[in-house]
Amino acid sequence: MRDLYQSQRAMRNMRQAAMQRGVVAILDVGSSKIACLVLRFDGPEQFGDSDGVGSMAGQSSFRVIGAATTRSRGVRFGEVDAMAETERAIRTAVQAAQKMANVRVDHVIACLSGGRPRSYGLDGQVDVMGQTVSEGDIGRVLAECEVPDIGEGREVLHAQPINFALDHRSGLADPRGQIGSKLTTDMHLMTVEDSVIENLLYCIKRCDLELAGIASSAYAAGISSLVEDEQELGAACIDMGGGSTGISIFMRKHMIYSDCVRMGGDHVTSDISMGLQVAPAMAERIKTFYGGVLATGMDDREMIEVGADTGDWERDRRTVSRAELIGIMRPRVEEILEEVRVRLDAAGFEHLPSQQIVLTGGGSQIPGLDGLASKILGQQVRLGRPLRVQGLPQAATGSAFSAAVGLSLFAAHPQDEWWDFDIPAEKYPARSFKRAVRWFRENW
Amino acid sequence: MRSLKATRPPQPKRDPAPSRWGYRYQRLMLTPGFRRMLRVGVPVLVIGGLIAGWGAREANRQMVADAYADMKSQIQQRDEFMVKVMAVDGADDTLAADIRTVLPIEFPLSSFDLDLEDMRQTVAALPAVADARLRVRPGGILQVNVTQRVPVAMFRAPTGLKLIDADGVLIQNIIARADRSDLPLITGDGAREALAEGLEIYRVAGPLAPRMRGVVRMGERRWDVILDSGQRVLLPNTDPVPAFERVVAMNQAQDLLERDVAVVDMRHPARPTIRLNEQAVTNLREINAASE
């Protein structure tokens, strides 16, 4: 755990350095597209602090000055599959964004959706050292949390304290300075496979960039697409990506659970490709232009030309009705949503006070998805689009960019993580000092 | 059946990704410092290098220097900058001639070549000049404005007669006393320092004035008045003017100086003393003896 602590701290310092410099890049490495935003931080907000809340809820301390998207290559299920291809795709996106921003970026904050994320709830308890809770007490209680066996080859991606309790009072956001004797904390720990992180790290390093932070894309999508009261009262964000569908549950403005279904829009495309016997590129085109999940009588009569380039006239002039297309797409979408339902049930989502579900990500743009989702996931379903941030081009305001936008919000206002608090000083120096004293006593 | 459409040549799709070096090059070009170096540093280096290479040859440098000097002289020799005459104001003819002698300028001359301050000091160094101002007037005239010293007395120095102004400055030599007989004559060591007093003595002379030949500073402390026929009036150290007024009064009352008196000694204010000529003494003795 100490290694992780150090490396995450180093990353946090690098983020600080990038903010100091004023320019940082956001990289969303997805299975279907790679998006890169270049943010410029202008320091604290200059206007609108008269009424306490700045414009855009205080999120306007940065500005998007460059944005670029490229088709992702070499990424499957949100994990790097072909290293060189991914590196090239990242280079394309970063170069285009740099060109638009007309500034060179050296620091990048990345997010990834794959790596089989797993959530753990941790708790720790300590006696408060002095009269009131100090920063050191918080560091101690976080260090006191009993870490479960996260398994071989896995790494902690997020470790966020989500609740503090002091004696019998629970639900404290910030117990510092409060009087009490027993401090308890709940911590949400999220782990992913370390090989996934390392591969991504290697790709980014090959592009001469420095990683200044890393986050889960489900988390980032939740930050940007859930509105504030949903985050407060409890909501789940379903980020329907190309290769995987991320789930993040928010409560009291903290992510309390995260999971991932390894199915997404690419699977729908491959179903169409197989079902209609067309090339994947054509299938993708048909899906985006004519796709849907609710068939009506009109759809039987709407014929779609399924072109091909074989030279066989009969084959190249095939048509299918839109109802047929919906018949191919719907089972797969249902499967994904049912899998999401299973994960939410496993997480105990039904016990939350509010059961809002927000669908976002590129896959959520299928017409009629909200109707289908409400049948499977429950009545409170809406489609989410990312928060509007300053300078974001119109082309990048769609729901496919919720992870990228959320990541830029995360860059501007990172949540406290375990490694932001100083590790308690008495941990090992005190012991070694005691050992030295004992050695002196015994030998002199 | 084969398609009747013209078959497209199998064109490999261009990779949209930039090459590694292309990517690095673009990042380098986006680095502000590097861009500034390209935009400013490289042109400066290139131009500087060209100039340095060209100027490395002695002939080229000489050419530049010549061209510069030529252009400079062309501008300076323009008609607008030429000075053609010198006008001297406030000086009499002799002084004007002197000024023209000490400023030997060959007109026409460019005003850039005139060192006015130096010339002003030269003119002001002339003894007869109290103050001088020089300027180049429009129209190419070198205007010399001179304030001349006014002679108030004639001073007889061991080397000859000189005119002297109120400040005791010697103005010019003069050949004969008769040239400026209107001015009083003053002489003796330290006479120039006590000039005001000497002139005051002259002023109170009144009817005696035509007879006065001059005043002499004796031993740098007191005055003697020399009258024609060699008579002397010795004045005291302090208050010489009232003493001389007394002499004048005595002369008016008793025709003192009409008599055969050699010296009137006023050095003791309470007791004016007279020294008679030898002949007079003899006569006096004879008269005294006859009366006894």
UniProtKB/TrEMBL annotation, chain A:
Localisation: Cell membrane
Membrane topology: Peripheral membrane protein
Record-annotated SHS2 domain positions: 24-225
InterPro entries named among the record's database cross-references: ATPase_NBD, Cell_div_FtsA, FtsA/MreB, SHS2_FtsA
Keywords: Cell cycle, Cell division, Cell membrane, Membrane
Pfam families: FtsA, SHS2_FTSA
Primary residence: membrane
BP term (GO), one: cell division
Domain of life: Bacteria
CDD domains referenced in this protein's UniProt entry, alphabetically: ASKHA_NBD_FtsA
Subunit and interaction comment: Self-interacts. Interacts with FtsZ.
Free-text function comment from the UniProt entry: Cell division protein that is involved in the assembly of the Z ring. May serve as a membrane anchor for the Z ring.
Protein name as annotated: Cell division protein FtsA
Gene: ftsA
TrEMBL record, chain B:
One Pfam family this sequence matches: FtsQ_DivIB_C
Location of the POTRA domain: 81-149
Membrane topology listed for this record: Single-pass type II membrane protein
Cellular localisation: Cell inner membrane; Membrane
Protein keywords: Cell cycle, Cell division, Cell inner membrane, Cell membrane, Membrane, Transmembrane, Transmembrane helix
Record Gene3D superfamilies: Cell division protein FtsQ/DivIB (3.40.50.11690)
Keyword Nuclease on entry: no
Positions of transmembrane segments: 37-56
GO BP terms in the entry: cell division
Principal subcellular localisation of the protein: membrane
Family matches, as InterPro entries: Cell_div_FtsQ/DivIB_C, FtsQ, FtsQ_C_sf, POTRA, POTRA_FtsQ_type
Family: Belongs to the FtsQ/DivIB family. FtsQ subfamily.
Function per UniProt: Essential cell division protein.
Matching PANTHER family: CELL DIVISION PROTEIN FTSQ (PTHR35851:SF1)
Name of the featured protein: Cell division protein FtsQ
Protein source organism: Octadecabacter dasysiphoniae
